[in-house]
Amino acid sequence: MSDPIPDQRPETFQPPPPPSVEPEPKAPRPVKLRPVAIGLFVIGLILVGLGIPGILPGGTWTGAAFAFWGILLFVFSFIPLPKTTGSEEPPMSTMEKLTGIFFEPTRVFKNLRAHPRWLAPFVVISVLSAGYTAAFVQRLTPERIVTYTMEKLEESPIKPPPEQMEQIKEDNLEQARQPIQRVQSAAKAFVSVFVMNCFVAAVCLLGVLIFGGRMNFWQALAAVFYAALPVVVIQKLLSLVILYIKDPEDIHPILNQESLVQDNLGFFFSPADNPVLFVLATAIGILSFYGLWLRARGLANAGYKVSSTAAWGTTILILILTLIVGAILAALFPSFLS
Q: Integer distance in angstroms from the first to the last C-alpha of the chain?
C-alpha cells in the first residue's frame, strides 16, 4: 500500500504586519498663559463692577479691555508652540535679545525660531508708548488737546448732536485730568499694543502661508514684536526730547500724539491741503524703511521655511494695505489732519 500523497496546495499567503510607527509627539502648548489669562479676566470683571455704579470712574471700559485681553490670552494658550528637535541653539537671554536686535538682528530672529518669546519687547514698547502719551498730555495740557479734538470732530461727517458734543467734551476732559483715569489710560495702552501686534502677526502669518512659507503663530508674534522694538525705542525717546525742546504751540495735538520725529516725506505736504498725499508720504522715511527691513528679516529667519521673497512680499503687502486704509481715513476725515 503506497504512502498517501501529501497535500501540495500552496499555503494561504499571510501578509506581514504593518510596521509599527510611533505617533509623533504633540507640540507643547503655552499653558502657562492660562493662569495669567484668568487673572486678567477676573481683574477686568472687578473693574467693570466698580465702574458701573461709578465707584471707579472709567472702570467699565478699562475692565472690558482687561477682560477681553484675558479671553484672548486664554484662547491663544491652545495654539501649539513650535516643534523642537533638541539640537537648536539655547535661548538667548532677555538682555542679549533686547540689545542684539539693534546690532545683530539676524541672530536674534534665528533664535526666536525655536524660542519665540515676546514678553520683553511687549513690555518695553508698552511702557514707552504709555510714557510718551502721558508726557504729551502733560506738556500740551488736557484742555488744549480735548478742545482741539472736539473742534475737528464738529467739522467731520460723524459730528454728534450739539447736546452730546458738550457731554463728550466734559467726559474727555475729566478723563484727561483725573490721575486715576490717566493710570487707566496707561493700562489700556498695554492692551492696545498687545492686540494690535497680535493682529499684525496674524496677517504676517497668513501672508507667509500664501507665499508658500511655513511659520508658527508664536514665531510670527515674536518676530513682529522684536522687529517693532528698535523703531519704537528710537521714535519715542527722540520724541520725548523734542517734546520738551519744542514750543507746545508748535506741536499738533492730534498728528503728534504718536511721534514728533520728522524723518519722512510728509514734511513736504500740508496735511490740511493734501491729506491723502500727506498720509502716503509719511510712509517714505528712514524709520519706516528700517522697520520694513526688520520685519522682513524677522519673518525670513524666525519661521520654519520662509524665503526672502515670501518675507518681503508679506511685508510689502501689509504696507500697501496700511496705506490704503490710511488714505481712505484721510479722505473721509481730513479735518483731523488740518
A: 121
Q: What gap in Å lies between CA 79 and CA 83, rounded to an integer?
A: 12
Burial class of residue 2, CB neighbours in 10 A (0-12, 13-18, 19+): exposed
Please tell me the pTM assigned to this model.
0.87
Distance CA 187, CA 127 (A): 9
In the structure, what pLDDT confidence band is assigned to residue 191 with cuts at 50, 70 and 90? very high
**Which residue, among 280, 278, 292, has the nearest Cα to 231 in the 3D structure?**
292
What is the rounded CA–CA span in Å between residue 289 and residue 300?
Answer: 16
pLDDT mean across residues, the chain = 87
Is the Cβ–Cβ distance between 232 and 127 less than 8 Å?
no
Give DSSP secondary structure letters for 291-314: HHHHHHHHHHHHSSB--HHHHHHH
Tell me the three state secondary structure of residue 264: strand
Q: By the 8 A CB rule, do 108 and 101 touch?
A: yes
Q: Are residues 45 and 67 in contact, defined by beta-carbon separation less than 8 angstroms?
A: yes
Q: pLDDT for 86-124, tens place per residue? A: 667 888 999 999 999 999 999 999 999 989 999 999 999
- SS3 of residue 214 by DSSP: strand
In angstroms, the CA 74 to CA 44 distance is 14
Rounded to whole angstroms, the Cα distance separating 231 from 18 reads: 56
In this model, does residue 235 exceed pLDDT 70?
yes
